Amino acid sequence: MNRRKLIVMEDSEIDTFLHERNSMTLATINLDGSPNLVAMWYGFYGDGSVGMWTFAKSQKAVNLSRDPRLTCLIETGDTYATVKGVEIKGRAELLKEQSAILEIGKSLYGRYFGELDDSGVKAVEKMSNKRVAIKVVVDKIISWDHSKLNGIY
Asked: Is residue 34 in a domain?
């Protein structure tokens, strides 16, 4: 059997992996065509879409407003046998509506800071100023889980 097929994650495994508390590397395209890579915390919209927020004047937001293509990489593991990852290729929807910014902000807060109580809601509201939301529209997902090789390389 093709070794690549051995390490592909099922949809349910991808969903479980993405919902773990990891960081993502976001790649956008600079004006000169070079990649812009940044580490991002990410969350989820109610429809299950991956999303994040950033300052409206950040390089990634500027890049995505010009060219919405992006690639997101979430990867874990510190040995070959434990490496797992998901690469999402797609495009960004830049959302400027306060409701969308707050929705992803609340998701981020809950994932990375803990339960979203009244003080958390206030923090998200304060942090939402000058930000835009990025909703990832998926074109293709590539995944790998080297633990499926059971130590056979």
From this structure: yes
Which domain CATH number covers 17? Answer: 2.30.110.10
Q: Give domain status of residue 15, yes or no.
A: yes
Can you read off the two tokens belonging to residue 63?
Answer: 């890049």
Domain assignment of residue 153, yes or no: no
End-to-end CA distance of the chain: 13
Residue 153 has a pLDDT of 64
| CB-based contact 103:46 (threshold 8 Å) | yes
Whole domain around residue 142: which residue ranges?
3-148
| 88 lies in some domain | yes
For residue 111, how far is the Cα from the chain centroid? 12
Partners of 87 in beta bridges: 73, 142
What total of structural domains would you count in the chain? 1
Q: Which 3 state secondary structure label does DSSP give 138?
A: strand
pLDDT digits (tens, 9 = 90+) for 25-72: 999 999 999 999 999 999 999 999 999 999 999 999 999 999 999 999
DSSP secondary structure of 37-63: EEEE--EE-TTS-EEEEEETTSHHHHH
User: Model confidence at 1, in pLDDT bands (50, 70, 90)?
Assistant: low
Rounded to two decimals, the pTM is 0.91
